[in-house]
Each structure stands twice: as structure tokens, then as C-alpha cells.
Amino acid sequence: MLRASAAAEAAGIPSSSLVCEGFLGQGATTSVGLGLPNLPMAKVPGHVDTQTDNELRQNLISVTVREVIENLTAVPPAAVMVPEPGPRDVILEGSFEEINRFFYENDWSDGLPIVPPTRGKIEGFLDFTDLPAGHAIGKLPPDNRQATVWNVAVNGVMAGCRPQYMPVLIALAEAMADPVYGVEHSGNTPGAETLITINGPIIKDLDFNYEQGVLRDGFQANTAIGRWWRLYLRNVAGFLPHQTDKGTFGNTWRVVLAENEDVLARIGWPPLSADFGHNRGENAVVISRYTGGDVITSVFGKKPEEMLPYLADALISQTGWQLIFTVGMADGGYSPLLILSPILAETIAKAGWSKDDVRQWLFENARISAAKFEQYIGEFTNLLSGGRSLYELARLGKANKVFGESDDPGRLVPIVCEARDIQIAVSGDPGRTNAQVFSHNGILGYPTSRAIRLPGDWRNKLAAVE
Amino acid sequence: MNENSYAALWPRGEKTVQITPLAPRLDTLNGKTVAFLWDYLFRGDEIFPILESELSAAYPDMRFVGYEVFGSTHGTDEGQILADLSQTMAEHKVDAIISGMGC
Predict the structure, then answer these.
(1) How far is A138 from chain B (nearest CA, A)?
(2) Tens digit of pLDDT for each residue in A149-194?
(3) How far apart are CA A319 and CA A425, in angstroms?
């Protein structure tokens, strides 16, 4: 909404942005990143979703209209640039405690102790990439700061990463900067958190946990790289709670999910990264934002037909308002993740089922009534206004045709547009019959991947630090 | 610097966007064309008609361009819609915009 206003201002057209009262602070900090710190906003008192028609009307008439007129006709005070340090400036010399307090007070840390990013530590990380330190990876909204190899390393030091994690961190920064991912949405109110998935021999090279407790902290590669992601969002993209990050509740950063490639090789299933064009055996990361999910405990059955109904039910139960990414805000942008423990994947594969077979079965069976679907995207949330049915939306070309096969509100419709929208990974305790579903944040964190590029002489460098 | 002292470097990145001036404001809204831009969220379809009615009462010669001319500014098409915005505004002779809803 502010990006639209900024685009208008850049074209020489004055703007007024309508902002609910609780979002004026986020608007002000986001405007700085857009290069328009004085971008005018018109307050809408309270939050519109809980107001009666009359309350809304009165609020607009008594407050908003006057501010709109002022926004478009009065010249606001000139904006001034606040000077900042240079990317390689020493900002404080002091003890461990002094550095930590200073970083915390300046919003540069998450509240846990950080490793002071000294030049020597940073250079140790730079040894693990062939890219120059100043290499520009991309610019990251909302602050629109430059992501570079240098500041990837600085935040890697701070997060407690080891220098040899650097190739993974660079790949993650590249994925974060990919417009397909949509990092600019990382401060939206659902407060989704990114899950990083990693594939390839680097899982063993860096000693990632890929078995029991894979999503638990306590394994340095999984944990520190997960923490790095959130520090990088904070320091380079510029997402700060109470400012640009408006997650209503939020999540703590997630540790990295490493797939169990031994099991995948044994059963002949491709890794998650293969769904994004990477070859089996290639080092790669996939990032995606998830609002939540649940463990699906004790999947009972000796063959796929007995196990999959429970998993389909789990996909349904973990999907509600997110259907706005299947129809409404996007068409085909909802992409939930199902993590199977190895024993589940092995049992299903033993019956001759491929990963695509599982996906197709889930697509055809994880279905809800059209009426329920319409409630989630319309009646319950008003995220899709206008009250059109799925049938009408499909007929108008605003929804995938699979939603328009009839106008019976009781008909069953899928929760995604195509089978391939259901992601499947294999990890966790090899001997326990549990699964996990992550409900996805759609185009506001769309699955995005990058290959991990190792430096020359990787093996010797790795041996030297181990 | 002793062994218990650290010289810590700045953890952020350089800003890629410099401060740019706002567009010139209008001397009056009377006789001007104002476009509504909408992210298709938070009751904009109810809010814009109220604004149009109130502004028209204050400035009888104002003209309005509806949000449907532009499409949703928040969603899959955002990038293309914003890339085309300058041209779309020119085609409709837009003098100012009102963009919602930030909630």
C-alpha cells in the first residue's frame, strides 16, 4: 500500500495513504526505507474490521477525510537523512558485556548474547567464499539496504555460526533477495517465520542434525544458521518488532531442517530441492514462510491407503485463512509442507509409491466443501471482499478451473490448485511414525531456492578449521 | 586493545535508497482527478465510496478514478501494477492518489 504511494510520488503524483491507527508506526519506519520519510498518511481510527458501518463512517468523516485533504494539499516538513556508520566501521571497542549491551540498545541483536563481530572473525568467514567481500547480493526491503558478502559474514559471526557455514549463509541471502520470495512481506501481521530446508552432501560436511529432534535447537549448524536468518532480517532487511515487523504474535526463528538423504536414496525419492530444479546430490537451500502447523502423531497403518487419510486430514486441519493464497490474493500461491519421518516414507515407498503418487493422492483427497472454503476467504476474514462464490470466481477466470466444476456448495474442492503445490520432505526420528505439517504463508514468503556454491579447496579449508 | 576487549564492526548494510522529495502538492482539490488504489483488503470497497462522497461534497468539481482500473496493489500482480502505475495514471489524467488499506 505504501509502495504504491511511493510509486505515485516518484511519478510526480501526490499521495495520501490510508493507515489504521495501530499501523502508523510501521508506516513511518517503512517510509524511511522507501526514501520518503515524510510520506503523508491519513489515520483511520481503530481497526476497520471490528467497526460497525456507522462507526466506520463516523471515523472516516471526523478524522480521515480531513487528513486526506491535508496530505494532498499541504507541503509536509522536509525530510533529513540521519548519518550512519560505514559498512566496515568499528562502532565500539569494549568488553564482551559492553559490546552486547551496545548492540542490544541499538536494536542490532535479538536479546541473546552475540559474538562480537571483529575484523579477524569476519575475515575467517570470508575465507569460505570465492566472492569478494563487497559483492552485492541484492537490496532488501523494507530498509532497502544492500546485502553483501561482508554483512552476511558480520551477522554470521554474531549468530554464533562457524566460518565454514558461510557458503550456506550466502545462498540464503541470495534467496532472501529473490523477488519471488517476497521478503518485503516479512513484517505482516500473521507473523509467519521462515523454515530453511537444506539438501546435499553439505549436510554431513557441516554436521547438521537430520534425525531425531531435527527441529530442536542444540545442533550448532541447524541452530546458528536459523538464528542468522532472523539477525539478517533485523540488521540488513530492517525488520524490527514494534516498528516494521507487525507480527501480531510472531514466532521465534526456526532451526534449519536438514533432510535425511540416506533414506531418500534408499527409497528412490528425490529431495525437496529437486522440486525447485536442483539435482540430487547438489547442495541447495529452500526457504519458505510458515504461519504454524502441528505434529501428526502415531500415523497408523501398514500400507499407504491406510496412512494417507490421516495425513490428508492433517493438511486440511492446518489450513484455514491461508486458502486466500489458493484463491483470492493469489492463484496457486499456497504450498503447505508435509514432513514425513523416515519410517513413514519407507513404508509408503515399499508399496511402490513415488513422492508424486503421494502428492497426487493428497491433492485428490485433502478436500473441503466449497462452502467452507468460501467461509475462510470471505465470511470469516473478509480477506476476499465481494461475496463471490468459488464457482463465480472460476467462471470469471479469477480462480483455477478446478474450483468451478459445479456450483454445488457442498462439493469437495482441493486446498491447493495442483498436486505439486504440496511439498514433501523426509526427516526426523527414523523410527517413529510421526509427521509434521506446516501451513504456509503463500506469496508472502513463497518457496524459493538457491544452490550453495562452495569455495575452491573446500575439503582442505574444512579440514583446517575442524 | 587487551585480550578482553573487542573492536566490533557495524552489522548493517548501506542504504540503497536516498531521500527523495515528495511530489508537489495540489493548490486545491477542486477540479482535480483523484484515483483510488487498493490492496483489496480491510473494507476498502466500503471506505472509498464514503471518501468519494465526502470529498465531492467539499469539492464539487472533483473527479474520481476507481481502484478496479488499477487492480490489487498487494498480491501476485503488485510488481507489474506498480511498474505500470505511472502510465495508467497518465492515461486517466490523475492528479493525486489515495492508497489503502494499511491495517
Answers:
(1) 10
(2) 999 999 999 999 999 999 999 999 999 999 999 999 999 999 999 9
(3) 18
Instruction: Choose the closest CB to B14 out of A56, A75, A87.
Output: A87
How far is A113 from A191, CA to CA, in rounded Å? 24
- The x, y and z cell numbers of residue A319, run together, are 489450513
Check: CB of residue A384 under 8 Å from CB of residue A396.
no
Q: Is A362 left (phi over 0), alpha (psi -120 to 50) or beta?
A: alpha
Nearest to A49 among B42, B51, B82 (CB): B42
Residue of B nearest to A18 (CA): B100
Q: Could you write out the DSSP letters of every residue in A237-253?
A: I---BTTTB--SS--PP
- Verify whether the Cβ–Cβ distance A60 to B100 is below 8 Å: no
Task: Output the CA angle A10-A11-A15, nearest 5 degrees.
Answer: 75
For residue A57, being part of any structural domain is answered with yes
Residue whose grid cell is 474490521: A49
Task: Enter the pTM of the model.
Answer: 0.95
CB–CB contact A144 B15 (8 Å): yes
Sort out which chain B residues have CB atoms less than 8 A from A88's CB and list them: 9-10
- Provide the grid cell at A315: 493438511
For residues A101 and A107, what is the distance between their CA atoms, to the nearest angstrom? 10
CA distance A122 to B63: 58
State which residues form the domain around A18: 2-73
